[in-house]
Amino acid sequence: MISGRILVVDDEKQIHRFLAPALTAAGYEPLRAERGDEALRQVASAAPDLVLLDLGLPDMDGQEVLRKLREFSSVPVIILSARDQEAGKIAALDSGADDYVEKPFALGELLARIRTALRRKGQAQLAMHELTLGGLRLDTTAAKAELNGMPLGLTKREHALLLLLLRNHGRVLTHRQILTALWGPAHTEDVAYLRVYIGQLRRKLGEELSAKLKTEPGVGYRLEE
Amino acid sequence: MAIHDDGRPDPDALLASAERSNRGHLKIFLGAAPGVGKTWEMLDAAQAKRQRGLDVVAGLIETHGRAGTLQKLEGLELLPRRAVPYRGQALEEFDLDAALARHPRLLLVDELAHTNAPGLRHAKRWQDVQEVLKAGIDVWSTVNVQHLESLNDQVARITGVRVAETIPDTVLDMADEIELIDLPPAELRARLQEGHIYRPDVATRALKDFFREGNLGALREMALRRAAQRIDRDVTQYMRLRAIPGPWPVAERVLALVGADASAGNVVRHAARLAEALRAPLTAFHVERTSDDARVQAALDLAVQLGGNVVTQNATDLVHAVLDYAGQHNITHIVMGRQPAKRWRFGRRLAEALTRQSAAFSLHFVPLPAAPAPRPGRKPSKPDWEPYLLASALLGAVTVIGVVANKYVPQEAMGLIFTGIIAAMASRSGRNAGLFTAFFAFLLWNFCFLPPVYTFSVSDPRDVVALLVFLLVGLLTGQLAGRVRQEAGAAAARVEALRRISLFGQRLSRAATLSDVLAGAAEEAASMANAGIVLLSGPAGLRAEATQPSGTMLDEAAAAAAEWCFAHGVETGFGTSTLPSVPWRFLPLASNAGGIGVLGAKPAAISPPLAQALSALAGQTALAVERARLSLHTARAEAQQDSQKLRNALLASLSHDLRTPLTSIRGAAETLAQAGNALDASTRADLLASITQDTARMTKFLANIMDMARIESGGLTVRRERVRLEEVVEAAIARVSGALYTRVNIAPDATHAQADPALLEQVIVNLLDNAVKYAPPDSHIRISATRAGNSIGLGVADAGVGIAPGELQAVFDSFFRASRGDRVAPGTGLGLAIAKAFTEAMGGTISAQSPRTDLPADGMPGTIITLELPAA
Hints:
By secondary structure, chain A is of the alpha/beta class. Chain A is 44% helix and 22% strand. A six-stranded parallel β-sheet of chain B has the order 3-2-6-7-1-8, sandwiched between helices. A five-stranded parallel β-sheet of chain B has the order 11-10-9-12-13, sandwiched between helices.
C-alpha cells in the first residue's frame, strides 16, 4: 500500500541511498532530485505529496527553491538542515516550509514529522467553528475557550495565539510568523512579548497541555498532537 | 564692584542707604529646601527679641503642624488671619491692613514667595511685605532658594520640579540681612524620615522625588552660593570650605590680564580665587611685548596650574585686544594690576578704557605687592658699543667731508644731512643710539658749521630749536623703529614657530612607526632647545624612548622632575615653579585616555613663543603616539581576526564533513534496524556498504586534520630519497576510489625524483581527490611526469569545471573550497593546503593552472596542478 509520494531533494548520494529504502519500507514512494531545478520539475510533473528539501544545493539556494516552489504548489515541505544553517532554516520556515529536521536526524523522528505533515495537509482546508485538542475546546469565532468544560479565561491575545497554534498544531511556527499574525509586521523582532504570552498561556493551559506546547529554541513554537 | 578707584563711597550706594533709613529693616531667613528649619529659627530669634522686650508680632506663620514650630510660637502675639472666599472655600491669608494698623516694631511673615488669593491688594506676599516695610515696620521673613526667579530654571533642571511661586531677585537684594539656614542633606532626609516635616506617607514619596540627596545637595549649594554672593566674606569662606562639586551652567567668565610687572602673579591668583568662588572658567590673557620676562611666563604657568587656560596675542593695541577678546568671549570679570600713576601708560589707558566699558564687565584691580621684588632674570644688559662707534664714524666722516667741501655745502644742508644720519641710526639701532647721534651731531654741527665756527657758542636762538629738532628726530625715529622691529621680531618668531609645528605635523603624519614618531619628536625638541627627550610610561615607570642628541641621559633631579610632570600632568622644570633648578623643561604628553609620557627639552632660556611651541609640540607628539599605538593595535586585531576566520572555517568544515557521513551512517543503520525484514538482500547489502564507505570518508577526514595539525605544529619529519614515481603514483591511484580512469604518462627521463615516498603519495592522493571532486563523474584524469633541467614536473590534470581566475591563488589556502553559489563542496578544503605544505617540506613547489592554456594537447579542459620536484 502506497500512502504517498515523497520527493527527496539532496545533492548527497549517500542520503538518497538510505532514504529511498527507508521510505519505501514505511510505505511511501520515494522520488529523487539532486539539484534545485530538477526538484522544481519533479514537483510540477510528478505532484509529490511531500518534499524533503536540503538547504545546501549545488545550483540553487534551498530558499530560492522553496520560493519558486510555493509559486505554484502548496505541497508540504520539510527542511533538512544543519546546525550551522540556523538562519537559512528560519528563513525557509518563514517563507512557507512546514517543518524541519536537523542532520543527522533519527529516522523515526523524520517519519513522524512526515506523517504529521501529510495529515495536516488533509485537514488544512476545513473551516471549523470549534477546534479541539485533548480536553481543550476553542471557539474560533468568539473568544471562548474551555478546558475539560471549565472556561480558561484567556485574554483576546492569548486566545488568538492559542488559535494560531491549534490551527497549525504539529507544525513549527517561527517567532516571526506568530508575531506577524498577532501583532502585525511592525513587531516581528519583539520576541520578548511573545515569550511573555506563551508563559501566560502555559500557566492557564495546565500541566498536561502546556507540556505539548514545545519551544523550538531559536526558531519558534510548536503545539504537538 | 562698587568700590571706586579713589576710595570714595559709591553715590548710588549712598542714595540707596538714605532711602532705606526711613524704611523698615528686612531680614530674610534663606533655606535650601522645605524642612531645614527656617521658620523655627526665625521664631527662636523672635522669642529672644521678645524676651528682651521688643514688640514682636507674628503676622503669619505656617507651622505645617510641626510640633517644634508650634512650641516656638508660644507667647508670641499672633495676628488673626484674613479669610478670603475663593471658589466656595475660605482661604486664610496674611492680613496686611491689620498688620499696618497694629504697627508692631517687628513683624514675622513666613513664606515670602507665597501667592496671595485673588481679590487681595497685592498678588504676592512679598509685595505685602514691601508695604509693611515702607510703613517703617521691621520684617523677618523666610524663603527657600528655589523660589528665586533667576534660579528657577536651574532648579527645574536639577530637581525636575518647576516652582510656580517665585520672587524677583531684587527682593532678596532688598533685604538688609540674610540668615542662611543650613542643614546637610543627610540630616534633612533623616528629619524627613522621622516625620518631622511631612506625614509619613507623604514623606516617603518626597524622599524619592524632591528630597533626593542629589537634589538637596544642589539646592543647598545654590542657597550657599546665593548667600555668598549677597553676604559677607565669612560666608564666602564657609561656602568654599564646604564646596560641593557639581556641574553648573556657566554664566561668569574671568579674564586675568597678565603683563610684565610685579603684580602679574597676584593678578592671576586673585582671578583664580574669583573664578573659583564664581565657579567660572579662568583665562589668563597676555599681549606679547619685548619687555616680557620670566614673571610673565611664571604668571601664565600659574594660571594653568590653577586650572585656567592661557591666551597669548600679538597685538599693538593692548586696549583693543583686551576689549575684543572680552567681548567675543563673554567675559564678565576682568582682573588687572593696579598701575602706579607713572608706570605703564598702557595700564592707565587700559583701566580708563575698561572703566568706560564697565557696563559689560566687572573690573577688579589688584594692588602691586608692597615691596616690589627686584625684577628677576633681568640682568643689566651689556652695552653694545657697535652702534655708537658706527654713529661716531659716520658723523666724523660727514663732518670731515663737510669741512673740506665747505664752499659747496651750505650749513643748512649739513643740518639736513645730520638729521638724516640721526634718523638712520635711530631706526637701525634704537632710541639710545639715536639720541647719542643727535647729541653729537648737534655738537659737531655747532662746532664745525655754525658761525661762529669752531666754537660751541650758540649765537642764534634758532640753533636751540635745531638742537631740539635733532633730539626729537632721534627720539621719535628710535622709538618708532624700535616698535616696528619688536613687532617684526615677534611676528617672525611666531611665524617660525608655526612653520616648525606644521612641518613637524607633516613629518609625524608620515612617520610609520611609533619609534619614528618618538625620534621625530625628540629631534624637533632638540632643534628648538639644545636637547630633546621623549619618555613614555610603561609597566616599569617612565622610560626614555628617544633622545636627541642620542645618548642624552637625565640625572636624578631631572628624572624626578619628569616623574612629577607625568604624575601631575603639569609642566615642570626649567622656567616653571616646580623644580625650576633642573635645566630641563618637561611637558606632559596626554591622550584622551590619560597620560602617556613626557616630552623634555633643554633650552638655554624660555620665552613665551618657545614655551608655546614646545607645548604645541607636546600636543602633536601625544596625538601621533596615540595614532601609532592605535594602528599597531589595529594590526594585532586584524591578525587575530585572521586566525578567528581560520577557526570558523575549520568549524564549518568539521560540521559539514562530519554531518553528511554521520547522517548517512545513522540513516542506513536505522533503516536496517527498523525495516530490515522488509528489504531485499541487495538493498541490505547496499546500506551496509554505504556505512563502510562513510566510515572511510570520516577516517580520511580525520587523517587530513591530523596531517594539518602535524604541519602547523612543525612536527613533520621529511626523508629525502630516490623515489620511483610510477610506484608512488600507482599506490596513490589505488587509494582513491573515484580515480579508476586515470591515465599515467611518465617520460623516460623523469622516472625518479628526490622525495619522501609517504608524503609524496599523500600529495598525489590529495590531488586526485580534488580532481575527482570537481570533475564530472567517470571522466578521465591524467597524470604526467616530464623532466625540465634538474627538476621533475608532475602534473595532475582533470576535465572538471576549472577554477575561477580570482580563486587560483587561494586554492592552496587552508579550508578554501571553490564556491558554487551557496553550495559547499564536500571535503575539508584541507587537501590542497596539505599537498602544498608537504611539497614545500620536500623542497618542491606546487602551482595550479586553470583553464589550461595547453588545452588541445591531452584533451583535459579543467585544471592542472603541477608539482616541481628535484630530479634524482
